[in-house]
Amino acid sequence: IRHLLSGADLDADTATQILDTAAEMATVAGREVKKLPALRGRTVVNLFYEDSTRTRISFEAAAKRLSADVINFSAKGSSVTKGESLKDTALTLQAMGADAVVVRHPASGAPHRLANWVDGSVVNAGDGTHEHPTQALLDAYTMRARLGRLAGLHVAIVGDVLHSRVARSNVLLLSTLGAKVTLVGPPTLIPVDWAARAGVGSVATDADPGTDVCYDLDAVLPGVDVVMMLRVQRERMNDSYFPSAREYARRYGLDGPRMRRLPEHAIVMHPGPMNRGMEITPEVADSPRSTIVEQVANGVSVRMAVLYLLLGGNNR
Ligand code: CP
User: Fold this and answer.
1) Which of 22, 136, 152, 196 could bond to 302 as cystine, CB 3.0-4.6 Å?
2) Which residues are L-aspartate-binding (predicted)?
3) Which of the 8 DSSP states describes residue 115?
4) Same domain as 149, residue 71
């Protein structure tokens, strides 16, 4: 593949190749030799129009561990504040020799537009409420590392699914890799098309055989291998839409008693950043079942694999 814009860009073989390559990268990174020469002479641009901690830093760490040159661009403090367009910004960065552009943007579809304008590879690092494919890859990597497989796993994705690019990319990738996904949340925070397609509370239709929808978290917990809690994205809601924090936590927050309803082997995930006390309590976030810190560490290996396969693999 030339670009990574969506979970739908990945068939099972390509996704597995990325996860296997990430496992090799993790082995290298865990040894004394922390740097590989694979992308020496290549330039990776991090083009961030939206805030980020994990994604931006881990792409930077990944590119540097592969010996690439890294240019970090943040819209704040740039000529974007003077009205410069995404296209002109991208062409400016390309003129400085970008081989890959890692882009985060509040507008859904912005990375797809960018891919038409630049010669290099484009990686979607989160576009609006649309997709975040490298987050889904690192989540899949973490599930496979902890539970030994992806095919046949039952994954509950819980909370503000409506505004979640993480949920959308996970649904696409996990379905491709043979896992079953149940989306759980209040009806106002589940996309109507997914609820309609799945039939609420029932097994999904042929159109989307791996995904169903349930509004009752307590009913779902005893039967899952993975519970992935999502942040309630206040910044994407207007006030009338925003649920009361206490009511939300009571019905959809993962606390200690709810965690103990999970099967013994089940893990708890969260892409971060967390609203501690709302969708997840500190007791759960910091428990041995939680993979939240592992997800961040795995993100570096997965992003190394993505950059390596886009820039250093068979494509060039
Ligand atoms: N999970 C995630 O995308 O986190 P950041 O917004 O900090 O990059």
Assistant:
1) 22
2) 82, 165, 231
3) H
4) no
